[in-house]
Amino acid sequence: MTPTGALLTAGALRKTYGATLALDGADFGIHPGEVVAVMGPSGSGKSTLLHCLAGIVRPDSGEVRYRGRELSAMSDAERSALRRSDFGFVFQFGQLVPELTCVENVALPLRLSGVKRREAEARSTEWLDRLEVSDVAGKRPGEVSGGQGQRVAVARSLVTGPRVLFADEPTGALDSLNGERVMQLLTEAARDSRTAVVLVTHEPRVAAYSDREVVVRDGVARDMAGVA
Ligand SMILES: Nc1ncnc2c1ncn2[C@@H]1O[C@H](COP(=O)(O)OP(=O)(O)O)[C@@H](O)[C@H]1O
Ligand SMILES: [Mg+2]
Fold first, then answer.
1. C-alpha–C-alpha distance, residues 190 and 196, integer Å
2. Ligand 1 atom, smallest distance to 219 CA
3. How far, in Å, from the CA of 42 to the mean position of ligand 2?
4. Fewest CB within 10 angstroms: 3, 28, 144, 220, which?
């Protein structure tokens, strides 16, 4: 399955963990600038699908293509380079580095790709501003609220200008007010930069920020619009 103009596609993905069938022939497609919500009950295979799409988990069979290239045909080094240059990640619990300040956390992916400290921190400061958390720039993650920490994590995921943002239950640990604001800021920033967002969630209120919904049940993904 290669929809015209799709950025990232998956076809017939199967993945087992021992006796557990996590993915049972899942298809998926996303275009540049599109926000797709991956919905479904707990244990249905949402995270496994995201991990396969991001080249973190290798499916037993089926294929994932990013800009026409099959991920499984790349070497491990090529795949990690691709993840660093083209993909961004946000998880349920921000997973910030506790020893670094918030601005240093946002700057980290830039520093790892060789950007000088001054420039990395200047760009990170702009992103913190955009996510409305410039006031926590000098604080460590342990000193900020859950909502602030998650905005810092979103800033870190977008600072490198990824083409695809993978977000796995990004508001799962937040109250609804903070969750909604994080979703507003995340989708606004992603749409501005034409970043495609694969948004895993089981909350309809969060999925409401997407352009399209894909429902995963027992390892099978169904596009609710009938187009992928
Ligand atoms: N690393 C793993 N080892 C063993 N089983 C796993 C692993 N990851 C996921 N699973 C199993 O695969 C199924 C799908 O899991 P997952 O993709 O995490 O679902 P979801 O994100 O929808 O909650 C579940 O039954 C889960 O227990
Ligand atoms: Mg999950």
1. 7
2. 14
3. 7
4. 3
Are the beta carbons of 200 and 190 closer than 8 angstroms?
A: no
Q: How far apart are CA 205 and CA 24, in angstroms?
A: 27
Number of independent structural domains in the chain: 1
Q: 203 alpha carbon to ligand 1 midpoint, in Å?
A: 18
Q: What is the DSSP letter of 134?
A: G
Predicted TM-score (pTM) of this structure: 0.94
Ligand 1 and 17: CB distance under 6 A: yes
What values do phi and psi take at 24, rounded to 5?
Answer: -130, 60
Dist CA 7 CA 30 (whole Å): 6
Kindly state whether residue 171 falls inside one of the protein's structural domains. yes
Residue 3 lies in a domain: no
Per-residue pLDDT of the chain (228 residues), as tens digits, is 455 689 999 999 999 999 999 999 999 999 999 999 999 999 999 999 999 999 999 999 999 999 999 999 999 999 999 999 999 999 988 789 999 999 999 999 999 989 999 999 999 999 999 999 999 999 999 999 999 999 999 999 999 999 999 999 999 989 999 999 999 999 999 999 999 999 999 999 999 999 999 999 999 888 876 544
What CATH number does residue 185 fall under?
A: 3.40.50.300
Per-residue tokens: 10: 């998956």
2 in a structural domain: no
Which of 13, 16, 17 gets mutated to test ligand 1 (max ligand atoms within 8 A of its CB)?
17
- Which residue CA neighbors atom 13 of ligand 1 most closely? 22
Domain that holds residue 16: 8-223
